[in-house]
Every structure is written in C-alpha cells, then in structure tokens.
C-alpha cells in the first residue's frame, strides 16, 4: 500500500507546489491563531485550489466552534477535517455528520498507555494521527517539532489507520518508518527554516529521504 504523506502548515503557493511536486497525498492548513502557520479561511481557499485532484486538502482546527468551522468549510472547501484539540468522540461524530467530511483525529502520545484514548474514536474518526505531547510552555498542541518514542505504537492493532507525526525530518524518517511501518506520515517543522516558514529545498529533501527509506524497506522485504 502506498505511503500517505501530509505536508502540514502550508501558507504559500511555492511551498504547496513543492509539496505536490514531491508527491504529497495530503496538504494541511492550520486554523489556530497562536500558530505561526495560521492562515485565514479565504487564503486557504485560494491556496488549496492547486491541490485539486492531486492531494487532499486538510483543514486543521483546535476545539473550533460551529461558527468558525462553518466559515472555514465554506471558504476553504477542505477534503478532510483534522481535529487537533480535545474534541470528544461525540463532537467528532457531530462534525462528521454536520459537514459530511472524513475526519482525522489527533492524539498526543508519550508512551503506550496514551493509546487507550483512541478506543472511543474507533469507528468514528476516519483516521488517527499520533503526535508528540507539546513541550512544557508551548502554546501549540501540534507543530512543535518534537518526536515521541515510536516504540509506543508497537501495541497498536494492525488495522488502525493512522499518520505518524511529531518531529519528523529527512534525517529520521527512515528510522521512524522502520520502527512503525506507519501507513501515513505528517510533517511540518522538519521542512521549515524558521517557525511557519517552509523551505522548498527541505521539502524536496524530505521526499527524497522518504523514497530512499521506502525503497530500502521494500528491498529488504
Ligand atoms: O502546526 C501547527 O502550528 C499546529 C497548530 C495547532 C494545531 C496543530 C498544528 N499542527 C498539526 C500538524 O498536523 C503538524 O503537522 C504536526 O503536529 C507535526 O508537526 P511537527 O512536529 O512540527 O512536524
């Protein structure tokens, strides 16, 4: 099965073009005021057109209310919604029904005990995303550029569809894929030169590293 690759926190046409050229399956737009990657819905709506028919455009929100989500959905027309806050299973189901969109639910992980949190979301969220816990003092629930111990995911049932996230970069993606065999990966800070500033060269290098890693793994199988 092909590996899904989400480049998240995109804000410029150049960065989106680099993500699509590299072969991103998903491109993510952040709607969170405190984030250096925050975009307004209208800007995201213009930017996401480049991805039409090439990659899924994901709206990333954090405990957003209906009014904020209505505006995002109307202006951006996302293919998927990513819930990166404390949205309950009930709220997740409600949003899926309200917008008729597939939902990615994010979970923060430190060790295998954190995986118990996913149980009530199974059959509700379409996909899970495992991210590291934010460092102390961070204002951001995601996009912190920190990893968790990937061995925590060894306890997962084989049929859980998820994206591995948190502190990935060209230097560690081979090890991350080897440790987890994740069906999808998600990256933001690892392709930036400063918080919120994507770099087209780093994006290209990340895709190269992913290709090298997956070629090595398929050769070894
Ligand atoms: O990236 C942000 O600024 C952000 C802010 C608020 C909620 C979620 C956010 N990012 C969500 C993502 O999917 C990131 O790609 C993920 O957390 C990984 O980020 P990184 O560790 O920087 O690669």
TrEMBL record:
Domain N-(5'phosphoribosyl) anthranilate isomerase (PRAI): 5-209
Highest taxon of source: Bacteria
Pathway membership: Amino-acid biosynthesis; L-tryptophan biosynthesis; L-tryptophan from chorismate: step 3/5
Catalytic activity: N-(5-phospho-beta-D-ribosyl)anthranilate = 1-(2-carboxyphenylamino)-1-deoxy-D-ribulose 5-phosphate
Keywords: Amino-acid biosynthesis, Aromatic amino acid biosynthesis, Isomerase, Tryptophan biosynthesis
GO MF annotations, alphabetized: phosphoribosylanthranilate isomerase activity
Xref: PANTHER family: N-(5'-PHOSPHORIBOSYL)ANTHRANILATE ISOMERASE (PTHR42894:SF1)
Family assignment from sequence similarity: Belongs to the TrpF family.
Protein name: N-(5'-phosphoribosyl)anthranilate isomerase
């Amino acid at each position: 099965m092909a590996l899904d690759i989400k480049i998240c926190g995109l804000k410029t046409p150049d960065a989106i073009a680099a993500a699509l050229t590299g072969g991103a399956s998903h491109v993510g737009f952040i709607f969170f005021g405190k984030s250096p990657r925050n975009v307004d819905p209208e800007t995201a709506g213009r930017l996401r057109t480049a991805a039409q028919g090439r990659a899924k455009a994901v709206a990333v929100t954090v405990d957003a209310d209906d009014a904020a989500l209505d505006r995002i959905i109307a202006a951006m027309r996302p293919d998927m919604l990513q819930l990166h806050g404390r949205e309950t299973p009930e709220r997740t189901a409600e949003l899926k029904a309200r917008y008729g969109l597939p939902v990615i639910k994010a979970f923060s992980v430190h060790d295998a005990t954190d995986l118990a949190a996913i149980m009530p979301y199974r059959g509700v969220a379409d996909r899970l995303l495992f991210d590291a816990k934010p460092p102390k003092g961070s204002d951001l629930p995601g996009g912190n550029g920190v990893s968790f111990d990937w061995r925590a995911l060894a306890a997962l049932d084989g049929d859980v569809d998820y994206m591995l996230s948190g502190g990935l970069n060209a230097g560690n993606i081979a090890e991350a894929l080897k440790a987890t065999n994740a069906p999808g990966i998600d990256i933001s800070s690892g392709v930036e030169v400063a918080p919120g500033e994507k770099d087209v060269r780093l994006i290209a290098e990340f895709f190269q590293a992913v290709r090298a890693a997956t070629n090595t793994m398929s050769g070894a199988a």
